Amino acid sequence: MSLLEIKNLHVNVDGHEILKGIDLTINPGEVHSIMGPNGSGKSTLAQVLARRDAYHVIKGSVSFNGKDLLEMKPEEAACEGVFLAFQYPVEIPGISNAYFLRSALNAQRKFRGEEEMDAMDFLPFFRDKLKLLEMDEKLMNRSLNEGFSGGEKKRNEVLQMSILQPRLAVLDETDSGLDIDALRIVANGVNALRSPERGFLVVTHYQRLLNYIKPDFVHVLVDGRIVRSGGPELALELEDKGYGWIEQEAAAV
Amino acid sequence: MVTTSTQDLGIHLQNFTDFQRRAAGRNVPWLRKLREDAFARFAEVGFPTTRDEDWRFTNITPIVRTQFRLPGTALVQLPPAELKSWNIEGSAARLVFVNGRYAPELSRIAALPKGMAVSSLREQIEGNSDQISKQLGHYADTQRDAFVALNTAFVEDGAYVHVKRGVVAEAPIHLLFVSSSDHTALLTHPRNLVVFEDQSQGTVVEEYVSLGGGMMFSNGVTELVAGDDAHVSHYMIEREHKEAFNVSTLRIQQGRTASVASHSFLLGGGLVRNNVHPVLAGEGGECLINGLFVGSGKQHLDNYMHVEHASPHCASRQFYNGILDDKAHGVFHGRIVVHKDAQKTDAKQTNRNLLLSDDAQIDTKPQLEIYADDVKCTHGATIGQIDENALFYLRSRGMSEAEARRLLLLAFASECVERMRPGAAQIYVEQLIQEHLLPFREHSRHAGVGTGERNVEEVG
After folding, report:
1. Which of B390, B399, B413 sits opposite A90 (nearest CB)?
2. Domain region containing B205
3. A220-250 tens-digit pLDDT
4. Could you say which of A49, B244, B272, B319 is the most buried, measured as most Cβ atoms within 10 Å of its Cβ?
C-alpha cells in the first residue's frame, strides 16, 4: 500500500484556487521533492497535508496509510505519523523547548497507547539527537524558538522530527536561509531518518538541498499543477535553466 | 466625586457605632481618633462613582447598595480538608483569619528567626499599642481613598509582622483570610501592618479565600514599610468565589535602596479592585509590580497601580498580564507620578492582555504625571487573542487543541511566574495558576480568528 496518495486535489485559500488538481503518490522508503517558483502552491500543499484549516479542500482526496487524511484534525494527522517541518517555525515565549518536545512526544505516545515519558527518561532520549544536529543542550531550556537564529530554528524542526519519528516527513523549504554548514547539518539529520518505512516530501525552491538529500523523484509545481515529474536529473536541469522555460511550457499547454 | 446625599451610608454608620462600643483598643486615644477621623472622612466623601476618574471603569453600585453587616462573634467552623489545601509548603508561619478575626487554633507560628515577630494586629492593639502607633495609619491614605478610610475606621484585626534590622527570613509568612457567610451580607476590614527594618529580607503572602457562596465583601488594607536596603516580596492572591466583592489596598513605603516586589494574582472574586501604591521615598529604591488577572463568567477585575517616585535614582517596573474569557471585564490603570526632585527616575509599565471571547473586555489606561525633567518613563499595552499560528504549530506536533490552548495560556501566565523570586511562594502560586487555567482550555474559540495584536507603546 502506498504511504500517501493524493488524487486530483484542489485547494482554495482566501477564495483563490491555489492547487488545481494535484496527483501524487509516495511509497514507503521514497523521497520525493517538489520544486517550483514562488507562488506555485508548494507551501499550500505542505500545509494541507498538516491539516491547516484555513486551507479549504474543494475537490479531490488524500489518503495516508489507507486512511482519509482530509478527515483528520492536525493533531490526529500528527499522531498518525505526518510531520511538517515549518518554513517559519513559530516562537512561543514561556514554553521551554524541552517541555514542548516532551509534551508533543507524550501526546503521540498516548495516542498509540504507549506509556508517557517523564523528564528523566526523556533526557538521554534526546541527547544523542542533539549531538547529531550539533545543537547546544542549552537550547532545550530556552523558550521554544524564541531568539533562535534561522539555522537554529530549522535544526530544531529536524530535531523534533527525529524525536517524533513520523511515517511521512514533509519539509517546507527547510533549506531556505541556511548557510552551507547549517544545510549540511540539517541534511545529515534528515538522512539519518531515511528508512524503508518512511516517506519524505521535500519542498524546496533551490536545487542545492538535493545535493545533500538525494531524492528518488522530482516534481515541478507551476501554478497549482505538477507540470513535470522525473528523477534527480530534473532538479539539475532546473538549476541550470531556471524555472522560466518550464513556466512557458506549462502556459503553452 | 459624588456626595453622600445620593448614597445611604446608614448601615455603615450603624456598624461603626456598634463597633466603637466594643472594639479592641476603644479606649486608646490615638486609635479612637484614627478611627473617628477616618469614618468622618468616609462619611464626607462617600463611595466613589464612575464619574470619579480613578473609578471610571468600575461600577461599585452592588457594594454601595448592599446592607452589609460586620461579622458576629460566633466561631465559624472550618473543614480541615479545605485548610489543608490552603497551605504553602515550607512557610514559616500561617496566620488564619476567619471573617476578619484571627483564629489562633487554626494558625501555626513555628520557630521564627530571631528578630522576627508575627502576631495578630488585635494582639498588638490590646497589649502593645504604643509600638504600632508609630506606623499604623501613617501611610495608607484615608483622604484620597474612601475604601481605605472605611477600613481605617474599622481597624482592629489582621496581621502584624515585624522584622528587625538585618534579619533575613526567606520562608514566607502566609496570611490567610477566609470568608464564610451565613445568611447576612458579610463585611470584613482586614488590616495588616508589615514592617521590615533596614537591611532585612523576607516574604509575606496575603491570600483571600471563601467557604461556600453568599454575599461577602472584604475591604483589606496592608501597610508595608521597607526600611533602607530592605528586600521584601509581597504576594496578594485573590481566589474567593465568583460573586464575592474584594477591594484591597497595598501601600508600600520604601526607604533608601530598598527593593520591594509586589505580586498580585487575581483569580477569583466577582467584583475585585486591587490597589497597589508604592512610594519610593528613599534614593536608589527599586520596585517591581507584577501581576496576573484571570477572569471568566462575569468577573470584574480592576488593577489600579499608583507608583510614586519621590526620590532620585529610583526604578519601578510594572508588568501586568490579563486573561479574560466569557463576559469578564479587566481593568489596568497604571498611574506613575514622578515628583519634582525625583531626577533619574526610570519607570516602565507594560500591560498585556489576552481576550478569549468576543464579550470579554479590557480597559487599559496609562497615566503619567511627571514633574521632574530628567526621567525615563515608558508604557505599553497589548490586546490580542490566542495566536492561531502558535496553536496550529502545537497541534501539528500531536497536541490536542485543548492541550495546546492550555499550554499557550500557561506560557502567557508564566511570564509573571518567572518574575518571582524562586522559593516556596513561587511554587505555590505556579501550582494555583496551573489548576486555575485548566478549565479555560476546554473553551472553543469564538473570538474571531485573529493573530493580530493591537499595540500601544509610547516612550516619554
Report:
1. B390
2. 4-282
3. 999 999 999 999 999 888 888 888 888 888 8
4. B272
